[in-house]
Structures are given as structure tokens and as C-alpha cells.
Design brief:
This protein has 373 residues and is α/β, with parallel strands linked by helices. It contains 13 helices and 13 strands. Strands 1-2-9-6-5-3-4 form a seven-stranded mixed beta sheet. The chain has a two-stranded antiparallel ribbon with strand order 7-8. A two-stranded antiparallel sheet has the order 10-11. The chain starts with a strand and ends with a helix. The structure holds nicotinamide-adenine-dinucleotide and glycine.
């Protein structure tokens, strides 16, 4: 097989490779064989991904005499809760999962987060392989070890950091992913350029539409560059005491937008992050930190690829800066009563600030609600 990129995430005693290429599911035994001493894998996936991609993993591992058991869940964010976690854990215990078993999360971020959490608490922690099948999961959630579920108090409030033993990014799986999902995942790719790599951002301005359309070399370059950026940040700050918070660019706003929409499908996570990044850059400009021209560049590129840059098209009755501020106050990034924001001094120059005046945040929220689509 040619054209495979490998990125090592080096952490003491728990380092691992992320392998990126086309057709890796069919060749899964090559990477996973050495990690599966029991010659079985337990795949966790949702019904959609099971239908589309599970047989390729099963066939790929069968070639090396490795059997695949599987646990399936309904698709969607609703599966990332205590009830489904209990179901998964019961099923894994029914399968007599042992310390040297390895669970394989085959799917988007929902499955990756849920399966990762289950693996981290079963028998005090068993191995997990992440095989992300959405663009968002490939460039973000599958790498870095964050796991979790949602509770009635909010998203991702219960979880662990549990690094996978391997991440396989098979770009061929994206061929079945709906365009809207691919676009939403692309917002996280733009995030890496916007937060720390101006040259990558400039490359995306040229190549972005073709990346979303699935041009193989361009897609692989965009995904590999994103994962390399994330791995670098996670190696420097695994437990998010500093630099890792930069990965939340657009997320404090974005999570509030998602919460206001009630996770009803109006706003996918990546779409909320897209509008949230514009709000964060606009806030930075309003504070005199960022040139207005860089806000315009970000907005222009996101709009050019069809991502939302404000809430005008989705906001419902009852949406107000105050209501959105209320959602922000629930966000886990609140520290000592103050909201932490990722701001920017320009494209590629993000930083974390804990001292943002509430009036400026309110004004940024008013602007994102009012702007014409
Ligand atoms: P998702 O897992 O719900 O997947 C989106 C949809 O795409 C689902 O309906 C799924 O069935 C379908 N799908 C997946 N792969 C497919 C394929 N190849 N072809 C066709 N359909 C496919 O959503 P997501 O956007 O991947 O992930 C969102 C989740 O990720 C959220 O819960 C978010 O909190 C989490 N997240 C976690 C981290 C982290 O660091 N752990 C980072 C970002 C996001
Ligand atoms: N998605 C943010 C992080 O992994 O830290």
C-alpha cells in the first residue's frame, strides 16, 4: 500500500501511532495484529457505520485469523449517555472482556468518545483502537485521548483522558459521509490554521473546496497536517493545563450555540464551531487585538466553503445575547466564575485569555445573532 502517513504521538508509556491513508480497513491486520494478543477485537459502532464499513474491518482482520465481535448502538448524540454506556459495558462483560482485550471504536466522535470512556473504566482500563469514520473524528476527536458522555447538565461533563493504542484513519470511509458532515468536519481543519498555522490557512483558502469534495491528495494533506498539529499540542499539554485549550478556538461560543439549538440538528458541532470561530475573531478585533482584515479573511473562507459564519440562519425566537451567555456560564471552561476564551492576534496566532469584559462578549453575541446570512 502506498501513500500512508504515520504520526507518532509520543507520551511516556502510552505513545501511539496515527496511520492515515486510503483502504486501511482492508489492511487492518497489518497495524492491529500486533496489538491483539487474544486474536479477537470487539468493535463498537453505530448502526449506520456497521452497515457501511464493519464488514471491511471484519474481512481485514479475518485475513490474520482475528475474529471481530461487535456491539452496535443507535446513531446520534443521544447514544452518548449513561444508559448507552451501561449497555456497552454490560455487553463487553457478557463477552468476558479481559485486561488484554482491545476495543475498537469504529465511527464518528460519538462512538469514539463513548467507547473510549467505556474502555477507560472497564477492568480499570483496557486498550482502545480508534478508527474514526467522520472527518471531524479523524482530525480531532480520535486523537488525543479525550473520552466522555453527556449528562442532563451538559455535554462531555463526565469523562476521562485515555489514550488509544493506535488510530487508523481510513480516508476511504469518507466516501459515504454526507456532504454536510464533511463540511462540518472541515471547520475543525480550518481551526488548526486559524489557531496556529497561517501558512496552512492560506493553503486551505486555495484548496478547501477540493478538500471537502474529497480530492485524495489534498484531503490526505489536510487531515495529516491537522493531526500533526493536534498531536504536537497534546504532547505538550496532555491534560489541558495550558496550550491544549487552544484547540477550543470557537468552542466556547460554539457550545453555547449548540446548546441554544437544543442539539436538534439545526447546527452540527462543526457548524457551531465555524460560527464560533468567527465570533471569537470578531471579539478579538473588538478588543483591539486582531486586525479586522483577518476576521474578514476567516469569514470569507468559511462562507466560501458553505459553512455558517453567524447564527442569523438558525437562531430561533428567544435567542438573545443573555440566553447565550447563560449557556456559556454552564460551559466547563468556566474557571473561578470567569469564562476563558481563546482569542487571536491574527490568523495563526491564538491565545487563551481569562479576562474578557462581559460587555464585549455580549456585543459579539448580539453581532452573530443579527448579521444577515
Ligand atoms: P457522530 O459520531 O454522531 O457522526 C455523525 C453521523 O455520521 C452519525 O449519524 C454517524 O452514523 C454518521 N457516520 C459516521 N461515519 C460515517 C460514514 N463514514 N459514512 C456515513 N455516515 C457516517 O458525530 P461526529 O461529528 O463524528 O462527532 C461529534 C461528537 O464528537 C460529539 O459528541 C463531540 O462532543 C465529540 N468530540 C469529541 C472530541 C474529543 O476530543 N474527544 C473532539 C471533538 C468532538
Ligand atoms: N477537541 C479538543 C481536545 O482534544 O482537546
Amino acid at each position: 500500500m502506498s501513500g500512508v502517513d504515520t504520526i507518532r504521538l509520543a507520551l511516556p508509556g502510552r505513545g501511539y501511532d496515527t496511520v492515515i491513508g486510503y483502504g486501511l480497513l482492508d489492511e487492518a491486520a497489518r497495524w492491529l495484529g500486533p496489538l491483539l494478543p487474544r486474536r479477537r477485537a470487539i468493535a463498537i459502532c453505530d448502526d449506520t457505520v456497521a452497515r457501511l464499513h464493519l464488514s471491511r474491518l471484519q474481512n481485514g482482520l479475518a485475513r490474520a485469523g482475528i475474529a471481530v465481535e461487535n456491539v452496535t448502538l443507535p446513531p446520534g448524540e443521544g447514544s452518548k449517555d449513561f444508559a448507552h454506556l451501561e449497555r456497552v459495558i454490560d455487553r463487553l462483560l457478557d463477552l468476558q472482556v479481559a485486561r488484554d482485550d482491545v476495543v475498537v471504536a469504529l465511527g464518528g466522535g460519538v462512538i469514539g468518545d463513548l467507547a473510549g470512556f467505556a474502555a477507560s473504566i472497564l477492568r480499570r482500563g483496557i486498550g482502545i483502537v480508534q478508527i474514526p469514520t467522520t472527518l471531524l473524528a479523524q482530525v480531532d476527536s480520535a486523537v488525543g485521548g479525550k473520552t466522555g458522555i453527556n449528562t442532563r447538565h451538559g455535554k462531555n461533563l463526565v469523562g476521562t483522558i485515555h489514550q488509544p493504542v493506535c488510530v487508523l484513519v481510513d480516508l476511504a470511509t469518507l466516501a459515504t459521509l454526507p456532504l454536510r458532515q464533511r463540511r462540518a468536519g472541515y471547520a475543525e481543519i480550518v481551526k488548526y490554521g486559524a489557531l496556529g498555522d497561517a501558512a496552512f490557512f492560506a493553503w486551505l483558502e486555495d484548496a478547501g473546496s477540493r478538500v471537502i469534495a474529497g480530492a485524495p491528495d489534498l484531503l490526505q494533506h489536510a487531515v495529516t497536517t491537522s493531526i500533526r498539529a493536534k498531536a504536537g499540542i497534546v504532547m505538550a499539554d496532555e491534560r489541558e493545563t495550558g496550550e491544549r485549550a487552544l484547540l477550543n478556538l470557537g468552542h466556547t461560543f460554539g457550545h453555547a450555540f449548540e446548546a441554544a439549538a437544543g442539539y436538534d440538528g439545526r447546527l452540527l458541532h462543526g457548524e457551531a464551531v465555524s460560527a464560533g470561530m468567527v465570533a471569537a475573531f470578531a471579539l478579538s478585533a473588538a478588543l483591539g487585538l486582531c486586525p479586522a482584515g483577518d476576521v474578514a479573511r476567516l469569514r470569507t473562507h468559511l462562507a466560501a466553503v458553505g459553512l455558517p459564519t453567524d447564527l442569523a440562519a438558525v437562531a430561533g425566537a428567544g435567542w438573545s445575547p443573555e440566553a447565550l451567555l447563560g449557556h456559556m456560564a454552564q460551559d466547563k471552561k468556566v474557571k473561578d466564575g470567569a469564562l476563558r476564551f481563546v482569542l487571536a492576534r491574527g490568523i495563526g496566532r491564538a491565545f487563551v485569555s481569562a479576562a474578557v469584559p462581559a460587555a464585549a462578549v455580549r456585543a459579539a453575541l448580539a453581532a452573530t445573532l443579527e448579521r444577515a446570512p
